[in-house]
UniProtKB/TrEMBL annotation, chain B:
Belongs to the bacterial solute-binding protein 1 family. It comes from Polymorphospora rubra. PROSITE patterns: PROKAR_LIPOPROTEIN, SBP_BACTERIAL_1. The keyword Glycoprotein does not apply. Keywords: Ion transport, Iron, Iron transport, Metal-binding, Signal, Transport. PANTHER family: IRON-UTILIZATION PERIPLASMIC PROTEIN, THIAMINE-BINDING PERIPLASMIC PROTEIN-RELATED. Residues 1-26 form the signal peptide. InterPro entries: Ferric-bd, SBP_1_CS. GO terms for cellular component: outer membrane-bounded periplasmic space. Pfam families: SBP_bac_6. This is Iron ABC transporter substrate-binding protein.
Amino acid sequence: MVPRPVLFGTAVVAVAVALIPVAYLGVRTAEAGGERIAEELLTARVGLLALRTLGLAAVVTAGCLLLGVGSAFLVTRTDLPLRRFFGVLAALPLAVPTYIAGFAWISTVDRFEGFWPGALVLTLCSYPYVFLPVAAALTGADPAQEEVSRSLGRGAWRTFTDVTLRQIRPALTGGGLLVALYVLSDFGAASILRVDTFTRAIFIAFDLGFDRTAALVLSTVLVVLTVLLLAGESATRRRGERYARVGAGSRRPPARSRLGWARWPAVAALAGVAALALGVPAVSLAQRMAVGVSRPGSLGEIAVAAGNSLWLSLAGAALTMLLALPIGLLSARAPGALTGLLERLSYLTHALPGVVIGLSLVFFGINVAYPLYQTTWLLALGYAALFLPLAVAAVAGAAAQAPPILEEVARSLGRGPVAVLRTVTLPLTLPGIGAGAALVFLTCMKELPATLLLRPTGTDTLATELWTHTTVNAYAAAAPYAALLVLLSSVPTWLLAARSGILESEGGR
Amino acid sequence: MPTTPRKAALALTAASLLVLGLAACGAEDDAPAQAETPTSDKKITVYSGRSESLVKPLLEQFTQATGITVETRYGNTAAMATQLLEEGDRSPADVFLAQDAGALGAVAKQGLFATLDGSVTDKVPTAYRARSGQWVGVTARARVLVYNPDLVPEADLPASVFDLTGPAWKGKIGVAPTNASFQTFVTAIKVQHGEAKAKEFLAGLKANDPQVRDGNGPILDEVNSGKLPAGLLNHYYLGELAKEQGTTPDGLKAKLHFFPGGDSGGLVNVSGVGVLTKAAQDPDVKTFVDYLLGPDAQKYFAEQTYEYPVVAGVEGPAGVPALSSLAVPDIDLNDLDALEATIALIKESGLVP
């Protein structure tokens, strides 16, 4: 494809907007001076933090790959009983913020803190990042390759490892990357379960006498870790690319294997994971609501907070999609080194903690865009910087499913450009873009630290209300906000599950 | 293919509108942010480092009494102070309501606060306000040891916070080193006994295998439910938990131990208020600060948040000894803004990551 200057220019602008926080980091870190930077960074503590953070990211990513691929395979490729029900169940943990899950666990299990408990909770909350794309890839993959493999005498397991796994490799590595980046930036579980990660150290540095310099210097290490992760993922991706589907022609459902005696252990495993990921928070919330006597404000206040959450997340999702569109289209239509670099750059802020994004946009708002300061739009920009990769991945995926050849054919058959856009491109790409928007929307709903710093004064959201009540031990008052947050978040989650194809009945039995 | 440029053009238009918008905003940069005049517009903006559920009812009372609307931004004290420092003199805030003297001191140090009128600050004893007159205490809060009498007999209660580094307390103490009140307490040790002693205390505490928590709330929860024998926190948490459980502080299992004899462990800190320079002349802001130090607000704090009033003539909270009866350490709260050294000590001790 010819590189399109317009698309390229827009993508550059979008990436530049998303990189405002990194620019801020650079400016502020430079201000600190070399000596101060060295003093903060060249310590055994920083080395230990980096090792522990990477270790946690590795363990959680491995756990998520295992759970995500396992559930996705059972739900899409076997005769598992109630498979659609389990498909939705496996996506739902995405609706549970890690600070709610962490809190639920520590109030259920005494002394549930440190590395392994933190890894468990993070895995349970983030495996849908792997499950959803892998389930979609398994549903959409061309069964012919597997059939050929089987007909050539390979067993079921070898076919799975040699053919199936390769077909879904982009989904695997993409999902795994999102999980790893999420772990780098997570504050909720790390803080509540006391896992000493970089992000926790950054929050503590802020809390300890509002020491911005130390916190920002530490944040630069996160940027470096992110670059390392991205480089690692890019390496695997390049090798995986040729296994991707060629077109979205007529789809044929893949064959389902019979589980036989293994049906019930499989059901028990999925039910067990759901009980840990969803049951524990649900029971804990219910208990808190029953035990305490503090009551939230009126229903009106809860409704206002819910309305604010929805509106702010909607604005965040809209702006994020707007910025993601040129980057995603470019990466699908004009792949190349430069495009790849742009796309990777859009991932850079994803691993930064919300508080750093928040502060950088405070700085930007105060000094550069004052009229935007403490308006919805600056917060939306914060969300965009945080969650752009989720949107870019969705747009790129959707655009890839609408191969340019289809548009060319439509044109050659005499359709005008508008008609082609309406009848070919939009129908093919919109669902994918919609799924990206749902994911970003959902993630905005759960976001807390940047929301606290950037929201318009006086605007409470479900997440901030939840936070304000838990800081004074008013758990009973906090519980309805938590419940509503999870409930509202489960709507886009359900849409995502539906979108991944696991709800389709055509695969039947 | 022509459809793609069309779509791209659409996206470009949208994105460039956005960028132009940002640039335009940048161009307006020089417009004065402070349109505040000495006339009353019946509206103030408060940055609150104190929790919404504790302060909001009071602010509503204030609006009812005076007709002045309060726009409030809530966060924790450190976050709000950070935001103020980042915003500098363009901050939309008129007033900073903070949880701790150290935070007020740090913001004052950057020259962001106006000097308050003597007629306002004189209502508060000198111990509870800034020497410079740039902030004034609104409530007082005492550091205490909270303990569970089933696990710690009254006879074993320590006379000094330094006893907690002894072998008898190994694994038994909950602390929240990231909490501002803990830092201020360590600063108090430093001010009272010197840096070496503070360092020794932190090292002793760390060696004694303390239960590190992120906040005071979890410590009290665990002490009250018998999971933890004792912990260091502020006195009013007991009142909050009692309220949450629908009982009185006496009805809780957890009890408070006030360190006697001017021990550093018995530091009395303040929550307080500072006025941003641009709002120095705003009559609404003056009304607000007056209100905070008036009988209604002081009574509200004593009854609803279990803190000590700092203005004479208002009765203290139920269930705790009177403020005047506490043997507080001889420390000037103005000296507590030197947080950096304290933070370095806490970091060095290994109590925080």
